Amino acid sequence: MKIIESKLVAETDLPLQLNVSFNKVFDLFKKYADMEYAKHPYHSSAKKMVQLINKHPELNDGFSDYSLLDKYKEQIDLLLNPLFPEPLLLNEIKAASIPFSFTSFKFTNRFENILKNAGENYELNVRNFEEDSMYIMACTFILSFVHGFNVDLKRPFYFDIPDNTTGTMKYYRTTFNGDFSDITATENAPKLTEKDFKELLNNFDNIALWKEKFPPNSYIFKGFGLISLFDVTSEEMLSSIKANLLKGGQDLIPKLQSNLRDFYSIRDLKLGYSIFDNVNTKICETQVNKSNSLILNHGIEINCDSSYFCNTIMQKVFKDHETFIISDVADYGVKTGNNLFSKNLQENNIQSIILIPIKATNNGDLALLEIASPRAYDLNSVNINKLKDIIPVFEAAVKRTSEERQNILEATIQENYTSIHSSVKWRFYEAAEKYHTTRQTNTNAKLDEIVFNDVYPLFGQSDIKGSSVARNKAIQEDLTTQLTLAITVLKDACKTEKLPIYNELMFRVTSYLNDVKEGLNAGDEINILDFLNREIYPVFNHINKISTELSQKVSVYMKRLDKNLNVVYEKRKEYENSVTLLNDKLAQFLDNKQKQAQEMFPHYFERYKTDGVEYNMYIGQAITKKKKFDDLYLYNLRLWQLQTTYEMENLAFYERKNMQHDLQVASLILVHSNAMAIKFRMDEKQFDVDGAYNIRYEIIKKRIDKANIKGTDERLTVPGKIAIVYSQDKDALEYIKYINYLQSKNQLGKIEFLELEDLQGASGLKALRVEVIYQTSFDENKTITFNDLIKEIEA
Questions:
Q1: How far from chain centre, in Å, is Cα 102?
Q2: Is residue 795 predicted with pLDDT exceeding 60?
Q3: Any residues with CB less than 8 A from the CB of 751 and at least 6 apart, and which?
């Protein structure tokens, strides 16, 4: 008889004194040993069992020394044989056990085999054992058994037992039969009333109260119990798969793979996941596909129309959306002429695979669940039926994931491709809700106009200075290179073939080269490229065939051309890469700073990338319902704008060393003191100022960066200085305070007070222009935050 004694026995406090007794079994034998049952088939064997027990009264009276289980193992084995019928020993998973101690003895053969497969080091422990919960459970057992108060605390116990034969985990639920036990109260057991019972019901987690009503060892347990285990691996895995799918996360596939390994008892089972785009009939390239698909290991993109899949898979999986099983990949390869799919599977040591198509979206996009094994027939048409309860869970998860992904895409589009900023989105939802509600009773309902009144504008820009000149210079240099290379080829051709046409073409190319060096006019680049395509390249085709040496010269020329544009695109590429780098850095920096500014007070923000960065902001009570607007927030935002403009100047200065083309920015801030209205233009899908008076503000915005200082030819915006344009003296006084503060931080230098030339539609403008003091080691991640700025000012 196998005996397993739990380590928890000595560690766990209980309200029960646990005594092993076979008294109730003895009573059963005594019944059949009585002469009343003399003719019963059990009579003679019952008499012998009574004699056996009488020789060992401890078995009837009870004992707490568990070593006696081993001493009397032969007698106990005989006593319990009727409860463990031999025909069921290889079927039932059952053992005699002492409740609340997890000490067990007398196991069925199947139970012993399970423990043997678990390995020598395995300990039979209950999952999620909690000492306090066990104490309270014992108390509820007493409440029902002794006091007649029924408490429904039937909590199933589970054993997680490894199966070393398959290398997987098996899960078992336990039931307990207490018919062979009895409980009596000792003198130390307090009397319990209805009031005590109700108090306990209201204080389940109060272990001190339970121990007060049921002191440790205040009751005596006498007897034993029977535990029966039921294999619930499939149910547990289904539950775990549901939980993991609901939880999601980056490690979802590894978790599901582990679940399915236990579910199928295949230790090296593989799980993959891919998505097929119905529009392009190819596997969508996503991060999930790259890391988890079993059929994408050797190709980023696989066209479903190609010979990759066989016709049967194409029909059943992609058209009929039916699950498809390949039990023997090698045999499948022979039958399909070793198509690419079978080769890919065998190269990845996959010999059996299940493909489960799941409709991911309404437009027919397909998610493909891939379950595979390195052995043939591990997965087959029989055990595929085990998945019937799991597939609906995957379908629900795929649909939910697809919806979440769609929401993310829509949010990305909303953020990057439309003008609906998060600060004003509430107003669009409000209008949409009103529209759809009204449409239920009025088919002629119209969408509200989105207008925000009494908001204050802020405008700023960091413009790449001299961008047009730099771009033209880059074009000029590239054309010079291309024409010079063409002349070199023609010169070498003249040495081989004395053809007058070569000299005539060289003359014309040289003329174009001289014109380019003197300067570019509108249309020059197009005319030159047209000339090269029409008259030079046909000649190059001829030269290419004359000799190997000349062919190499033509090859040198062709290699210098951009493959897509068919022109020398070196200096322009350097310039455009530099512009892109600077634009991206400035835009990203501004966006990050803007997130901090939104925490102060919600305001509308829109940013544009041109040759540099420009942006609009509007702040006022109409923008938000959450906070009450005060002019203080406008002043704070203006200070934030000046500080951020200074930091963007430093960022641009710092990035000069990382650019192939040296670029500098000139910064501008436009101050406008009067509140205005902005309106969402449905036709343009963007906000614009509303009202004739406010149009002047837009005119100034478009022309101010080209303005000169009054009485001079000097531009207002220059590198190394921030220009602040205003029309009212009070605005200048406000910004002088901000400048003085930043001067105290050694960030800004000398101030210039300037008047600007009159612009068409705007006159009388003035400006402050302040020197930027660049930091020697600027770190965009360590700039002053908005909150820090306000703390400094308030201090």
A1: 43
A2: no
A3: 736, 739, 768, 769, 770, 771
Secondary structure, 3-state, 556-596: HHHHCECCCCCCECCHHHHHHHHHHHHHHHHHHHHHHHHHH
Q: Contact 218/15 with Cβ under 8 angstroms? A: yes
Calpha distance 313→504 (Å, rounded): 65
Look up tokens 């002429």; give the residue. Answer: 337
Q: Say what the alpha-carbon torsion angle 137, 142, 148, 154 is, to the nearest 10 degrees.
A: 20
Using one digit for the tens of pLDDT, what is the confidence trace for 561-604?
A: 888 888 899 998 989 999 999 999 999 999 999 988 998 899 99
Rounded to a whole number, what is the largest CA-CA distance in the chain? 139
Residue 608 in 3-state DSSP? strand
Tell me the two tokens of residue 411. 């949010």
Q: What is the C-alpha separation between 536 and 557, in angstroms, rounded?
A: 12
| CA–CA dist 757, 711 (Å, integer) | 7
Is residue 669 within 8 Å of 641, Cβ to Cβ?
yes
- 288 alpha-carbon distance from chain centroid: 10
Q: Which residues contact 6 (CB under 8 A, 6 or more apart)?
A: 101, 102, 103, 123, 124, 125
Quick count: other Cβ atoms within 10 Å of Cβ 716? 22
Tens of pLDDT, residue by residue over 442-454, are: 888 888 888 999 9
pLDDT score recorded for residue 10: 45
Which pLDDT score is estimated for 148?
82
- Cα–Cα distance for residue pair 648/583, rounded to 1 Å: 11
pLDDT on residue 288: 35
pLDDT digits (tens, 9 = 90+) for 254-296: 888 888 888 888 989 999 887 776 544 444 333 333 346 787 6
d(CA 699, CA 693): 11
Strand partners, 352: 373
- What is residue 740's predicted lDDT score, i.e. its pLDDT? 94
Q: Which residues pair with 326 in a beta bridge?
A: 353
Structure tokens at 193: 């009333």
DSSP string for 417-438: HSS--TTTHHHHHHHHHHHHHH
Alpha-carbon distance values, 274 to 250, 284, 289, 326, 370 (Å): 15, 8, 5, 18, 8
Across the range 611-629, mean pLDDT stands at 91
Determine the Cα–Cα distance for residues 174 and 111; give it in Å rounded to an integer. 12
The whole-number pLDDT of residue 254 equals 86
Res. 782: pLDDT tops 50: yes
| Residue 789 confidence (pLDDT) | 59
Distance CA 375, CA 380 (A): 11
Residues 6 or more apart in contact with residue 325 via CB below 8 angstroms: 352, 353, 354, 355, 379, 380, 381, 384
Give burial (CB, 10 Å; 0-12/13-18/19+) of 794.
exposed
Query: For residue 551, is pLDDT > 80?
Result: yes
CA 192 to chain centre: 55
